[in-house]
Every structure is written in C-alpha cells, then in structure tokens.
C-alpha cells in the first residue's frame, strides 16, 4: 500500500477528469442522474484517499462550460447533487483541513449553488492539509481569455508580462501545475481542461468509469506515475547524473 511519500514520487497536484458516469449508469439500466450520484460517492472516496496519502492539491472536473449543452433535466440533477454534496461534506472537509476552491465562473451558476459554494469556500478557508479545487462551469479557453482581459485592465506594459503573470491570473493562481492528469472511462482528450496548467503534466488514461474508480485504481495510477521519468527537456543522462 502507498504510504506518505518517502521518495517524493507522489504528485503534489493531481487533476482528474471524472468521466463515464452516464455510461456506467446506462450499462446498469439506470438513469444518467443515478450515474452522477454514484460518481459523487467516488468523489468522497478519492478525496479521502488523497488526503490520507498527503497529496496537496486535488482538482476535479465537475462541470465544464460545455456541459450546459446537456439535457436540462441532467443539468438540474447535477446541480442538486452539488448542493447535497456540499451540505454533507463541507463540515468534514473543514475538520480534515481541506480547503475548497472553485475554478470557473461562479457567477454563471444558479443562486443556491453559488451561495452554498461561497459559504463552503469561507468555511474551509483555513485548511492547510490539502486544497480541493472543483472545476465548475469551467473552460480553459475562457479562463485564458479572462486572464488576458484582467492583465490588460491592470495596464501592464507588454514587456512586463511573462509566464508567471499569465499563470497568476488563472483560477489556479498561486498553485503548482498538476503533475498528473487522470481521465477515466476510456476517452483520451482534454475537453478544455487546464490547457495552460497541464503543459508538462503526466497523462494517465484508464477505461474504468468514474463510479468504479476506487482506492485501488487511484493507487495503481499513482504507482504508474511514480515510475515515469519527467525530463522537462533534459536527457535521461542529465537527470541520472544530477
Ligand atoms: C462525467 O460523466 C460527469 C460529467 C461530465 C458531469 P459523463 O456524464 O460525461 O459520462 P459519460 O461520458 O456520458 O459516460
Ligand atoms: C468533461 O467530460 C467534463 C467533466 C468531466 C465535467 P465530458 O464527458 O463532458 O467531455 P466530452 O464532451 O465527452 O469531451
Ligand atoms: Mg463524458
């Protein structure tokens, strides 16, 4: 079993695209909403495991800006699950020192969810053990556009703008980039997720649908990550010699 990282092989920041709730449900003759409910239970398991392992940042893709294109009933079900999740989990998150953040356009969310999220963010703000980012109403291209807009609004001269400036205007400002990006359920695409932040992330794709992605699946992904060689442009000989 994986322990608190003695060899520095755990990702500091783990990002996940939680995919496959719908197909998981359809395969069982259940509604898509029931698939999302099962997916919410997996969120609990994975947050707990990450906290236990000592992963410092966990970012979960919960609702993309493109997901508004889904049937209205499914969108409604997803947002009521979010409220339920917050009601149940926020006291536990606070207790475990997990601070909740939202990546995405909060103002575009329904009022009840916006209010509950603001409350949850405030309530957990002191947590220093782990940051849990929920990407909600999130799209990476829109994030980059709003970053550029705020840089322009601040009147920064072109020469003063560097990569750190841009990174500092993203929703993830102040956080390290994801070391590992996991996508469940077989799809091998980014779906407008953290395009800037994942420039050098290790990618891990598994056919397992999100509701079935348990502690063992997570540990297996982390073991694969631990065996990867991250070279950042250098040669393996340079890495081995340093
Ligand atoms: C991921 O599961 C959850 C959200 C996108 C909110 P899906 O609902 O995309 O499941 P599939 O891809 O249809 O199986
Ligand atoms: C990406 O999953 C968004 C979330 C997991 C919230 P989708 O299932 O919406 O992605 P596409 O549209 O199939 O690429
Ligand atoms: Mg999907």
Structure description:
- The structure is a single chain.
- It is built from eight helices and six strands; from the N terminus they run βααβαβαβααββαα.
- With 242 residues, it is an alpha/beta fold.
- It has a single domain, classed as Undecaprenyl pyrophosphate synthetase.
- A six-stranded parallel sheet has the order 3-4-2-1-5-6, sandwiched between helices.
- α4 links the parallel β3 (98-103) and β4.
- α3 runs parallel beside α4.
- The longest helix has 24 residues, at 72-95.
- The mean pLDDT is 96.
- One 3-methylbut-3-enyl trihydrogen diphosphate is lined by residues 17-19, 61-64, 66-67, 187, 189, 191.
- One 3-methylbut-3-enyl trihydrogen diphosphate binds at residues 17-19, 61-64, 66-67, 187, 189, 191.
